[in-house]
Structures are given as structure tokens and as C-alpha cells.
Amino acid sequence: MASAGPALTRVAREEGGRLLALLTDRLGDLELAHDCLQEAYATAAARWPADGIPRDAAAWIYVVARNRGVDRLRRDAASRRRMQAQSRVLETGVAHDAPSEGGVSPELIDDSDDAGDERLRLMLLCCHPALSRDAQVALTLRLAGGLTTEEIAASLLIPEPTVQQRVVRAKRKIRAAGIPLAIPADLDARAEILATVLGFIFNEGYLAHATDAGALTRAELADQAISLTAAAADALPDHPELAGLLALELFHRSRDAARVDSHGRLVRLGDQDRARWDRVMIARGFAILGRALAARQLGPWQVQALIAAEHTRDETDWARIVRYYDMLLSMTPGPIVALSRAIAVAEVEGAEPALAEVERIPGLEHYHLWHAALGDLRERCGDRGAARDAWARAAELARNPAEAAFARERGERLRRSM
């Protein structure tokens, strides 16, 4: 019999967001849906080792959670009816039969195989303007994206307790304010934060912080993000940034087969075998990006897609990429964008001016790619000792096993050559 633990973990990670969306839609209460889903996981952990893993594990979890929720709603409704009846007896001295209405409505137990609309509504609920931006991102990543608090903390570069506090407070606010699970008439107001959240989810799948057997990616999570982004772009055809994000995701995902070698080791972009790239996915990315750019509402996701698109060409125009990063810095200034620009500068002006730029960037002392850039550029400038130390620090800070192994190998190679 297969171990129940890994199967349950896989369902929770890969299907948790979809299951929560369906349950919230059926039960009409995010908090109740989340509680019942957690109870269903606990039931599975207790029963699967003895009973065996169900053929459709996700459906099993959903039915158990849904039934618990329906039972709780029925109990609450019955309790309210008893209280109402007691109140009438006290007021009139006459007992009445309990009314027939007030039970669970049939739609609460009506199954549906189409989770796409529910999933989008759950994400829009999490992105409600009544919540702070920080809460929107954390809640959507946790509930709709299925990421753990550790993964969210790593993606946002904040402590885990901060993520936990944001999620708890956001859920309480949704319940207290009675915010409905519905697609609002004005979707544009939530498009920007929705794109941000979808981008974070894709990034966690494309370069995962927690994977099995040291893998570089969580392909199923990246594909979920692409599917959700496509649904959001269809729902918001007048918001080209979502289409730009979708194109960016497709460009990145198209290279997945070439990002590691036969031993699972990281292969940098310049060393990848382009014959292994998914050309159909790239063509789809160009088509979507073209439609987004035609709207003439250029935004940061479209600029990032332009940069990714440039990397798919037979000859990369690094000067053009530097110009794109200049545009991106004007839209969303920040140290990580500045780091990416400096790396592109190295391909145009050489390692020394690029190194000077990287060393001037503040606030990235705990970011592994900053140290990796220092290691690479210092090695190219001939400072092997400093390069070795930078690669060692990058290996310490990298959360992805494949990235950490790559950094260690670079540092060890320098050590042997000294």
C-alpha cells in the first residue's frame, strides 16, 4: 500500500486552493470552508493508512469536508429554529411547530466539476479592496494559491509570523464585514493586485522554495498559475497587464525542460539547449504579448514579458534588454530590478562596470542572487577569492536545493583552482 502521508501532502499542495474555492462557494462561508477542509485532512490522515488511498483522493477530501460543512449549517439552522420557538413560547405562552424553511439549501450539496469560476471568485474575494495590500497578497497565496506560510515568507522576503498574522487578520475581516464570494461588477479595481498575486504563485512554481528530491520547480503550481492567469486575462480583456503576465509566464515555462541537466543540476539561461524549449508555448506567448501591447497601456508586466521574449530570440540584444530594464525601473523602482539591470549591463559594457553597480545596490544582503551575481562578476574580474566567498554565501542563502547546489559547485570549483 502506498504511504498515505505523501499522497495527502500532494492533495493539500496541489488541490487545496481549488477545494477551498469549491467549498467556499457551496457553504457560503470562507472560515467554515477552511475549517472543514482542515478537518477533512485530519480525517484522511487517520483513515487512509488503514483503508487505503482513495482512487480520487481530492474528491474524497472534498466530499468529507462538504458533508461536515453541511452538517454544521444544519445544526446551526436547527439551533436557531429552537431558539426562535422558545422565544415565541415565552412571548405568547403557545408552542408552535418549527417552520420547514431554514435548512440547508439544495445548492449547498450540489456537486460541480467546473471549479474555474469558483477559483477566480475566491481569488477576487482575497483581493477585496477592504483588505490591505499585504493582506491581499498573503491571503490569496495561502488560500487560493495553496502555498505554505514558509513559501509565502520566502517569496515576500518577510518573517513567517508576519505572514500568519496577515492571513488570520484578513480572514477575520472578511467574516466580520460579510464580504461575499462574488465577482464584482468593476473588476479593474482588483486587477493590479490579482496580477501581483498570480505572479508570486507562478514564481513559486517556476523556482520553488520547497520541492521534493531537490527539484528546481513545482511544475503543477506553475501550470496552475498559468491557468488562473489565462482565466483572469479572459475575464479582464481590457486590462493588458494580465495578458502581459500570461505571456511572461509562458516564456519562462517554455524553457523548463532545458533548465536542468540529466543529473538535475541547474543550467543557466545562456548554456541551455534551445532545441529543448517549447516553441509552441513561445509562439503563444508572442501572440498574447502582441495583443497586450496593441492596447497601448504599457505596464511593468508587459515590460518583463518583453525582456523574456528577447531571451527567446536566436541572438539576444542585450542593449535592448538594458533599455527595457530602464523602463521597468521607472515604473517599479527597487533593488531586485536594479540587480537584473546590472547583470544585463555586464553583457553590454563588461563585468567591471556591472560589478560596481551591483555593489552599490542596498538591501540585498540576505538575497542569494545578489551574492551569486557578485560571485560571477568578481570571478570575471579576476578576484577569485572574493568570488569564492560570494558563491559560498549564495549557497547558504539559497532556498531552492538546485540553486544552492549550483552555487556550492561554483564556489568549490574556484577553491580547487586557487
Can you walk me through this structure?
With 418 residues, the protein is mostly helical. The protein has a domain at 4-92. Helix content is 70%, strand content 0%. It has 18 helices and no strands. The chain has helices at 4-27, 30-51, 57-92, 116-126, 133-144, 149-156, 160-177, 188-206, 219-235, 240-253, 279-294, 300-311, 318-331, 335-349, 351-360, 368-380, 384-397, 401-417. Helix 4 (116-126) packs antiparallel against helix 5. The longest helix is centred in the first third of the chain and has 36 residues, at 57-92. The protein starts with a helix and ends with a helix.
Q: Briefly, what is this?
A:
With 418 residues, the protein is mainly alpha-helical.
Order of helices and strands: HHHHHHHHHHHHHHHHHH
- Percent strand: under 5%
For the residues shown, what is the average pLDDT?
85
Q: What Rg do the Cα atoms give? A: 25 Å
Distance between the termini: 52 Å
Q: Quick one: biggest sheet?
A: none
Helix content: 55-70%
SS-based class: mainly alpha
Number of helices: 18
Shape: globular
Count all strands and give the number: 0
- Low-pLDDT residue spans: 94-115
